[in-house]
Amino acid sequence: MVTTLEYPLSPKYIPNWTIGEALRELIANAFDVDADAKVSWSDGVASITDSGAGIAKSFWVIGEGNHGEIGQFGEGLKMAMLVLARDNYSVTVETVGYTVVPSLVYSEQYEAKVLALTMGGNIRDEGTSVKVECSHDQFIDAHNRFLRLYPRPFADEELNILRDPGSLFINGVYASHMDSLWGYNITDKTMTNRDRSVLDLDGVQRHMDKTIRALSSPALIYELLHHAVMNTSDHGKLAEYNVMVTPIEENRQLWCSVFSEIFGAKACISDCNTRNDRFLETSGYKVVWSSLPYATRHILKSSGVPTSTQIIKEMGEIPLAYVNEYDLTEDESNVLGIAVAIAEPLTKGALVNNVRVVDSFPSNMNQDMMGLYANNDVYLLRSILGSLEETAGVLIHERIHGLGFDDATVAFESKMTELLGVLATKASQVEE
User: Fold this and answer.
1) Domain spans of the chain?
2) Sheet order of strands, 377-381 included
3) CATH number of the domain at 3-143, please?
4) How far is CA 397 from the centre of its chain?
5) pTM of the full predicted structure?
C-alpha cells in the first residue's frame, strides 16, 4: 500500500542548504550506522548504502529518531529530503520493509507548499540504500568532505592534526575553513549545531589550546616556531598564534630544545628592556622579540626559555677588564677629563656610576663599538682617547642611555639632536 504523509515543513526552511549539505548529511547518517557503508556514483546517480538495521517508521516523526545511531540530531535525513525535493533532485530512500520518495506538494490543509513523503512497501531485509540524482562534481564535493572517503595525511594522528592547512573537521566531516597552520579533526560532535552551520568557536579554541599544549613532536614544534620566524605577516590571523598555553610538564624541555635549535644555544626572549637586549646582542646573544607572536613567546617563557633580563642578572657585573686610571697617559687623562666636563652638564641626571676605559671589548662583542652603557657604567674604548671630539661624542651618546633612552629610537635621536643644538649654540657664543 502506498501512503503520502504531509510534513508542515516549508521549502523556505534551511535556505542555506544546497545539495552539497544534503548529500553530506546522507553520507554522515550512513557512516553513523555502518563504518563500512558504501558511497559511489555512476551514470548521474549517487548511491549511499549501509548494512544497518534500517529506519524505523517512528523516525519520520519530528523530534523522534534514532539519535546517535542515524545522524546526531535525528533530523538530518528529513532536512536532506526537504532540500533535495525543493531543488528538484530525484531521490529514493529504500530501507527495511518500505521505500520513501520525497516531493513538494501544495497542502489544502496548510494552504502552503510543504514536504511530502510517499511511502510504499518493498522486500528489503537489511540496511538502507539512498539514491540521489546529481552531477559527478556535486558528488565529489560531498564525498571529499569526509576524511574516511578522502583521507588527508596526518601531521600527528594521536592529536588529530592534519596536513591540510585551515581545514576544520568535526568527527571526520568537513565543517569550516579557518586561518591556521594545520588542519584539525575534532571528535566532539557537540562543536556544531543541528544543521552543522554554526560552530562553537570557544570550544574550537579550547580544543586548539589542549592540542598545542600537548605537542610532543619536535618536528611540529619546529614547524610552528620556524613558521613564526619566517612569516611574521601571518601572526595576526593564524589561529595557532592566538593560543596562550603552558605546555605540559614533560614537554617543556622539548620546546626549549627546539627554540635553541632554531635560534642557537645563546638565544633568549626579550622582555622589553631594550638596553639589556642590545647589550646581550653585542655579547653574541640572539635576542628574539618581534620575530615571534606574543602567544608563542608566552609558551616559550612558560617552558623555561630565558629572558634577556634573567641572563643579565645571572651574569652579574659585566665581565670587562677596564684600564686603571693611573695607567692612562697624561694626554689620555686630559682628554677623558675634558670630555667628562663637557658631557656631564649636558646629560645632567644620567644614571652613570663610573666612566671606565677598556683596551678592547671582548671578541664576542661588536668590534666596531667605541663605547658601551651597561649596568649603569659607561665603557670607552681606549683608542678614541686620542681625539677629544670623538671621546666627548661617544661619552655623550652613552650617557644619554643613562637618561633612559635606547638606541635606534625616536626619543634617543630627538635627545641627541637637542644636545647638538645646545653645543652648537655654546660654540657660536664663544666665537662671538
Assistant:
1) 3-143, 154-213, 218-315, 322-425
2) 322-323, 354-358, 377-381, 371-374
3) 3.30.565
4) 41
5) 0.70
Nearest alpha-carbon partner for 216 in 254, 258, 256, 161: 254
Question: Could you tell me how many helices (H) and strands (E) the chain has, helices first?
Answer: 12, 18
What is the rounded CA–CA span in Å between residue 262 and residue 106?
68
What tens digit of pLDDT does each residue of 83-101 get? 999 999 999 999 999 999 9
Least confident of 79-88, 99-108, 186-195, 351-360: 186-195
| Backbone φ, ψ for residue 238 (5° rounding) | -65, 130
**Alpha carbons 85 and 19: distance in angstroms, whole number:** 10
In the numeric block, which cell numbers belong to residue 263? 635560534
DSSP state of 384: G
CB 244 within 8 A of CB 298: yes
Beta pairing partners, 373: 378
Query: Which architecture does CATH list for 322-425?
Result: 2-Layer Sandwich (3.30)
CB 47 within 8 A of CB 30: no
Closest CA to 47 of 122, 117, 142, 125: 142
Q: Which residue has the cell 513538494?
A: 104
**Angstrom distance (rounded) from CA 5 to CA 60:** 10
